[in-house]
Amino acid sequence: MPEPNHPEPAEYAALLSGVTREYVLKGETVRALRGIDLKVPRGDFVAIMGASGSGKSTLLNLLGCLDRPTAGTILLGNDDVTRLDDAALSEIRGSRIGFVFQSYNLIQQLTVIENIEVPLFYQKNVTSKSRKRCIELAKMVGLGDRLSHRPTQLSGGQQQRVAIARSLVNDPYFILADEPTGNLDSVTTLEILDLLDRLNSEGRTIILVTHEDEVGARSRRIVRLRDGQVESDKRLAEIPDLPDPPKPASRA
Ligand code: ADP
Ligand code: MG
């Protein structure tokens, strides 16, 4: 597909060529990904779909630098992450990528605001300024009046909002979400999708794994996997002119 507005590799949030991932399990090789070529322009909102076992989570983990491919290259921005060491990958995960999971992955003992702060805590970067930014994020996801609640005192949708706020704390340009609405009812699912829409319209690139057609329909593009290969790649909506990418200056 021609992408006239994005001629330079750097304009891609992610660029995958020939990516394979094989797992060896009890002497048998499982070919989870069999040669994925994928270009994700900045500002795109991609839904990865496909049957269970088709390789969706494996692909998302590679995009998130949580795992390495068996072969092939993955560029995130200008960086070939397949050539970086663990420390550099961890830096990229912390600074550029926001993760959202189906099960929220909140820490039960911590309050809403402390959960949002967790990524900063790991970077020993908690300051009064960063606390202010976390409160802003909590307000942005509609939890300004729940700052001291703990996860058990929140609904599933509210917990996912906390997780989304947490994913934004380092101003990532890239948000990866694995079945983010998988545990939510349909009304709450729509609220979370509205929130993701808003983040995307601010210029953040989103890649989301889902098996729900209604969720996929809200993306700009549906990439279907089948047996570890791209079966189809369908654009639903063009990417609008990009606003300036989220500025590190607004970071705490
Ligand atoms: P999906 O998310 O689409 O359900 P996955 O990416 O989780 O698919 O898995 C793709 C294939 O790789 C499946 O056949 C799965 O069993 C296999 N697989 C995934 N993770 C591992 C692992 N850690 N070890 C061995 N096989 C794995
Ligand atoms: Mg999966």
Task: Furnish the topology, listing elements before pairings.
Elements lengths: L11 E14 L2 E14 L3 E5 L6 H8 L7 E6 L2 E2 L5 H11 E5 L10 H11 L5 H13 L15 H12 L6 E5 L7 H16 L3 E5 L3 H4 L4 E6 L2 E7 L17
Parallel strand pairs: 3-8, 3-9, 6-7, 7-8
Antiparallel strand pairs: 1-2, 1-4, 4-5, 9-10
The chain binds adenosine-5'-diphosphate and magnesium ion.
Commentary on this structure:
The chain has 252 residues and is an alpha/beta fold. Helices cover 30% and strands 27% of the residues. It contains seven helices and ten strands. The strands form two sheets. A six-stranded mixed beta sheet has the order 6-7-8-3-9-10, with helices on both faces. Helix 6 links the parallel strand 7 and strand 8. The longest helix has 16 residues. The radius of gyration is 18 Å and the shape is globular.
